[in-house]
Design goal:
Elements: H1 2-12, H2 40-65, E1 70-76, E2 98-105, E3 111-117, E4 126-129, H3 134-148, E5 153-155, H4 169-178, E6 187-189, H5 191-199, H6 203-223, H7 236-250, E7 259-263, E8 287-292, E9 295-296, E10 299-300, E11 303-309, H8 319-336, H9 345-358, E12 362-365, E13 368-370, E14 402-414, E15 420-432, E16 437-439, E17 448-450
Parallel strand pairs: 1-5, 3-4, 5-6, 11-17
Antiparallel strand pairs: 1-2, 2-3, 7-8, 8-11, 9-10, 12-14, 13-14, 14-15, 15-16
Protein name: Aminopeptidase P family protein
InterPro entries: Creatinase/aminopeptidase-like (IPR036005), Pept_M24 (IPR000994)
Keywords: Aminopeptidase, Hydrolase, Protease, Signal
Length: 451
């Protein structure tokens, strides 16, 4: 792990401009053409290798950590469990008919991986049953379970975590019906295992994650340039669609429609406003913002960056805006300094708010985990619409080797705008190694410029 982290650090640390010289890990990108993108066929072997590594090494640790003897993932076609696609080999597009996965922890700590499916997967699973009808399938599942006689059987039911609530009511009842009556008390929520499985990153994933994030950031660099924007002509919607179509051309699916908005003097932006964002034709002197996210090789990104459209007589960003971006970087540092293994998301939020107030920064923090999905399970560190403790996900502690979208904003008055506020909204994908936060593809410490 140390070797990988060192490599990531060497990749992302770069020289930053005068107003951001104190801020580490700044990195500028220019084009997605600088980064390779694998064809869909070539992605399969990599994704399956990483899956097997996770099942071999990570899952046994997590089942022991969460004290589960067995884990059942049962779902049907068009009603797939949210965790299902993180567990099955590619190419898999659906749960064929009814698909059952059984993970049974053995005495030596290893985990037996079985499928009880009409259509077997093959590696990395062993088929305990295949073919036959649905009644036989359920009977086969009951036999697999009773032969191993587990005391704590995890099932995916949860009131608090959507990703851990994938077992439908109908399938839950069928499971109860097929098992001996005394097994009902052995069925427990697998929510802790599901969250840990979803949030934990491995060395192989960390090898590729910087490349994925670089692709995400590089398309933003293209979008916030004269290659895409003609001041007085191009609209914010035009730029949003460029971003989406550019990713699609690269074979990189977005997980939400990209957002592009603008700010300028005279448009509403109050110190306590949740968001300062307007739409329309982009003019010289405008501040631009985008929020985009892609998924590639099963890992997702979430990125927000800022751009500026130079006026005819300008060669660089006004000093007030440079200082505002630097304040945004300062807020990021205040937040990431609070990352400590075992500290809850609510504790990180409270400490960040306290430090920002001490520094006189008007800030809002709403950071979340990243991984197999963009809004991944793990510790919630504030919400955009409230800066108070989250009684559910905010209580989850930070673990080492997890990834986050370092997300939030600051507001600052700009002298060149007659004291009007600008909102700097930043979001960068990062990795917490248990000791420090490392931006996976650097972070924005300089403005994107449209000349």
């Amino acid at each position: 792990m140390k070797t990988i982290v060192t490599a990531v650090l060497l990749t992302v640390i770069a020289i930053t401009p005068t107003f951001a010289a104190e801020f580490s890990q700044g990195r500028q990108l220019s084009s997605a053409d600088d980064f390779a993108v694998l064809a869909p066929r070539d992605r399969v072997a990599i994704e399956n290798r990483i899956l097997t590594e996770r099942l071999d090494a990570l899952l046994p640790e997590l089942m022991a950590e969460t004290k589960l003897d067995m884990w059942l993932v049962i779902n049907r076609e068009y009603a797939e469990d949210p965790v299902y696609f993180t567990l099955v080999p590619q190419p898999t597009f659906a749960a064929r008919r009814t698909t059952m996965l059984v993970f049974s922890r053995k005495a030596d700590g290893s985990v037996e991986r079985l499928s009880v499916n009409r259509y077997p997967f093959g590696a990395p699973y062993t088929a305990a049953w295949s073919g036959g009808d649905l009644t036989e399938q359920w009977q086969a599942l009951a036999k697999v379970i009773t032969e191993r006689d587990p005391q704590r059987i995890g099932i995916n039911v949860s009131a608090d975590w959507p990703v851990a609530d994938g077992l439908t009511k109908g399938l839950h009842q069928l499971l109860l019906d097929v098992l001996p009556k005394h097994y009902a008390s052995r069925l427990v929520s697998a929510e802790s295992l599901v969250v840990r499985w979803m949030e934990q990153r491995t060395e192989s994933e960390l090898d590729i994650y910087p490349h994925i994030v670089s692709l995400a950031r590089a398309v933003i660099a293209e979008a916030f340039s004269a290659k895409v924007i003609t001041p007085g002509v191009t609209t914010t919607e035009d730029v949003a669609w460029y971003i989406r179509q550019r990713y699609e051309a690269l074979g990189l699916p977005v997980w939400f429609m990209p957002d592009v908005n603008l700010q300028r003097p005279g448009l509403p932006c109050e110190a306590q406003a949740a968001s300062c964002a307007s739409q329309g034709v982009i003019q010289r002197g405008d501040v631009l913002h985008t929020d985009v996210g892609i998924c590639y090789l099963k890992l997702c990104t979430d990125t927000q960056e800022m751009g500026y459209v130079l006026k005819v007589n300008e060669q660089e960003v006004p000093a007030g805006l440079k200082k505002a971006l630097a304040t945004g970087n300062q807020w990021q540092d205040s937040l990431t300094r609070q990352f400590k293994t075992g500290r809850t998301g609510n504790e990180v939020l409270a400490n960040t708010i306290k430090e920002s107030k001490k520094q006189g920064i008007i800030s809002s923090t709403y950071t979340h985990p990243l991984g197999f999905v963009g809004h991944a399970p793990g510790p919630t560190i504030g919400m955009w619409d409230h800066q108070t403790p989250d009684l559910e996900h905010g209580q989850w502690p930070l673990y080492a080797n997890t990834a986050y979208a370092i997300e939030g904003n600051i507001k600052q008055q700009v002298p060149e705008w007659d004291g009007h506020y600008v909102q700097i909204k930043l979001e960068q994908s990062a990795y917490f190694d248990g000791k420090e936060v490392i931006y996976l593809a650097g972070r924005q410490t300089q403005w994107h410029l449209v000349r």
